[in-house]
Design goal:
The chain is of the alpha/beta class and about 350 residues long. It has two domains: about 1-240, Spore Coat Polysaccharide Biosynthesis Protein SpsA, Chain A (Alpha-Beta Complex); about 245-338, no CATH class. It is about 40% helix and about 25% strand. About 40% of the residues are buried.
Length: about 350
């Protein structure tokens, strides 16, 4: 049995459900704890009665961790979510003695194959982290951390619990969405783990926590067994910044990291995720009569003159056209991805 945990709110339901469905397809035996960051998220997931899922309401975690609740008033919403990162796996391990290892995953991860190679690599260790693996062009981004919070493993022993307790205390003290004095949110603290905790290991696997920021310079191939990155099977991809621009248009967030798209990348990695997200959003709309957030493009003020609004609309469509020509956007029409 493998144990995972994550958290998200109602705005991230489609991502969280995509993560769950990918686990169902790739893992023979697992449990996924979901910390629901708002009531709407909890109520809807409770109605779905998903097998292998255990729900935690944010109020439950806050009741068990009063210091966490006390920090809530000093953080923005996203900063408070970051502050919860260490408290969630710590709470689960302390409440469930039968768990040997808990793996925290960001809600926008998606499994493409079984995690057995990662579990084998973690054997004999108490803490597992993944590097960002920035290419030379992006090394300046290490200001935000050498390691990524998207995949973390903790063994239910003295060292694993000590690491979580230390991380929790740091996040309670300072966890803000800006780089400052060698810190950034919940993530930059991970830089200290390999030297601070002797049983920590860096899970150096090209197919684990692959992401837009580390695709540059890699060799991505489609084999009969599935997608491979630098000769290693793609286990889990981190769809950081993946967003819907229009009902039929999606941004895979490659341009921010200067990564040119390829046919294999688009068809083998992004298309399956896009189809999954699109199908889930339709189901959610039918189930809950809610429309997920559609666009992240900045729109002009409603008080602008009509001429100004028209010019802005032209600029937006010209930008969309430019990115389509460069292969930076994905089109989803009638189940097909272009």
């Amino acid at each position: 049995m493998r144990y995972f945990c994550t958290y998200f709110d109602c705005n991230y339901l489609s991502r969280g459900l995509a993560l769950y469905r990918s686990l169902v397809r790739t893992s023979s035996s697992f449990q996924l704890w979901i910390l629901c960051m708002d009531r709407e998220c909890y109520d809807l997931l409770a109605r779905l009665r998903l097998p292998h899922v255990r729900l935690i309401a944010i109020a439950e975690l806050e009741a068990a961790d009063p210091e966490l609740l006390a920090a809530k008033g000093t953080r923005s919403k996203i900063e408070y979510y970051f502050t919860c990162s260490p408290s969630l796996p710590l709470y689960i391990l302390q409440s469930n003695a039968e768990i040997d290892v808990i793996t925290y995953v960001d809600a926008d991860l998606y499994f493409f194959s079984d995690a057995e190679p990662i579990c084998q690599a973690f054997s004999g260790h108490s803490i597992g982290i993944t590097g960002h693996r920035f290419p030379q062009l992006l090394l300046h981004l290490e200001e935000y951390g050498r390691y990524n919070v998207g995949w973390l493993m903790f063994r239910n022993n003295l060292e694993g619990l000590a690491c979580l307790a230390w991380w929790r205390q740091r996040c309670l003290e300072w966890c803000y969405d800006r780089p400052e004095a060698g810190r950034f949110a919940d993530q930059k603290y991970l830089d200290e783990w390999p030297s601070r905790f002797p049983e920590a290991c860096v899970l150096d696997h090209a197919g684990l926590n692959a992401a837009p920021w580390n695709l540059g310079g890699t060799v991505i191939t489609q084999t009969e067994a599935g997608i491979q990155i630098d000769g290693q099977p793609l286990v889990a991809f981190h769809f950081h910044g993946f967003k819907r621009i229009r009902r039929w248009l999606y941004d895979p967030n490659l341009s921010d990291y200067q990564v040119p798209s390829s046919i294999v990348m688009r068809r083998g990695i992004f298309a399956p995720y896009l189809r999954e997200i699109a199908a889930i959003e339709v189901e959610l709309k039918q189930l809950h009569n809610r429309t997920p957030p559609a666009t992240s493009l900045k729109r002009g003020s409603g008080n602008r003159p009509k001429a100004g609004r028209a010019k802005n609309a032209v600029r937006r469509w010209l930008e969309i056209g430019r990115r389509l020509v460069m292969g930076q956007y994905l089109i989803h029409v009638n189940g097909h991805v272009l």
